[in-house]
Amino acid sequence: MGFFSSKQHFPVEGRTVLLTGGSSGMGRALAKKLAEQGANVCIVARNQQKLDETIDYIKSHAKFPNQRFLAISADCTSATENTRILDETTTWNNSTPPDIIWANAGSSSPGLFIDTPLETHRAQMDMNYWSSFYLAHASLKLWLSPSSPQDKKEKEEAKRAEPRHFIITSSVVAFVGLAGYTPYAPAKAALKSLADSLRMELNLYSGSRQSSTHPSPTSEVKIHLVCPATILSPGYDAENETKHAVTKMLEEDDPKQTSEQVAEAALKGLRRGDYVITTQWLAHAMRVCALGGSPRNGWGIVDVLFGWVMGVAWLFIAPVLEGKVWRWGRDHGCASA
């Protein structure tokens, strides 16, 4: 898989994709690209008007005339709503669970830690961690439900079936903490830990599928974590309204991507079979610095070598960033701005 493999690890043509946060920004761009590649797509968001507009938009980019599209208005921060989303999608999909589920819902409300109301900290955790957690819990319970032992032919057919994929959108702030992102970054870091733990735990179910005597899931399940950086989108415009000036200063030279560029880079990483996917060079550097016990992509050689280089570079980069924040405080004070 990954760096040395030419196999397409993420075929979507004819498959059904459930995508939360699908009505704007990165989610809208993903829905369009999945439609272009022949997928049946269900998008989820709160605003019905935006959902309807996005459905019309992605229908116009469908690869085939018989592709199907569905919009569900729901609050992804509710556990019961995530169960409803899956129930409605499964019913719509001819009583078959979706093949690919992408937990993409999220929003950023940056600000200094002590200046941000506790209600906002809580809401950020609900939107950026619990929404993905609830969807993962409901999806994996559905996918991993064991079936009775099959005969040899059925077992072999199941082994050849394409795996299902659960994808979580996190952020590069899961790798490196920045001043002014304390309401947002902890939830995104928690998603990385959740993905790492789930990825290892799923080996239990994959191993059981090799048994001819024990009940086991009918399909293999893959976990992926997508960590974009700055995305030029309505969400980015909204977060800049509350973002502290010191945070804007730290980010001013960072490369920025459009929603389309991020969506294409994420899908390219999935086709390679990558586990942790970043979408531009700075994010790649941040990823290899912070992998810890996370699995490396491909055979791991590139990640290890790049990680050594960036480990040395970070000896110089980190003091520069912290020095910028210190000098900002000296020159401008610590008032919220």
Automatic annotation (TrEMBL):
Fetch the Pfam families from UniProt.
adh_short
Q: Which GO terms describe its molecular function?
A: 3-dehydrosphinganine reductase activity
Q: Which organism is it from?
A: Aureobasidium pullulans
Residues spanning the membrane? 301-321
Pathway assignment = Sphingolipid metabolism; Lipid metabolism; sphingolipid metabolism
A GO cellular-component term linked to this record = endoplasmic reticulum membrane
Q: Where in the cell is it found?
A: Endoplasmic reticulum
Under which name does UniProt file this protein? Answer: 3-dehydrosphinganine reductase
